[in-house]
Amino acid sequence: MFTERIWKRVEPIWSSYLEHPFVKGLGDGSLDEEKFKHWLKQDYVYLIEYAKLMAIGSSKARDLKTMGMFSELLHGTLFMEMDLHRKFALEFGISEETLEATDAAAVNTAYTSYMLNHAQRGGPEHVVAALLACAWSYNYIGKSLAEQSVEGNRYAQWIEMYSGDEFTELTNSAIELMDQLTAGKPERELAELEEIIVKTSYYEYMFWEMCETLEEWPVAKG
What we know:
Layout: H1 2-18, H2 21-28, H3 33-60, H4 64-91, H5 96-100, H6 106-121, H7 124-146, H8 156-163, H9 165-182, H10 187-212
């Protein structure tokens, strides 16, 4: 299976997420509120672009089953994952309008542009490669943090969401779709897809760092 090969490449990268101060703060509830709010707003506009990947994938699907799997991923992003963001926003006094009006930071812009570029230029397998690291690594983080549950953690709902059965099922659908679309592909194409997943894994780390440092753009925007 292609994703078994991928796991060997990305596991060391994803393990570093668990040592990142932002992720550790989520796990024990010590994360500064302003940092979480920064993540909340940046991730919301990220997910708007992320959802476009599934729409592109559905349009490029070569059969109804694949089209349906992309549609399920799209629905889960728009009406499960983003709904959690909206609920958290209310708790932190952030309106839905403010979420949508957030200006994507430099790392956020680079990351989503990278994903959308590969999705638009390639086939449905490139779309899954572009979106896989985000879903799979969040499920990985959620399950890891759930094992060290801390009573009274204000971010417990975040952990429950990303470690829960519904998000795990969506993640497994993306993994299954990746394996289906890569079956029988030549090594040259597999290597290209692997590189996309590895690069997006690095971008995931950069996103955590961006939220930890409250980064926007390196110079003031005019």
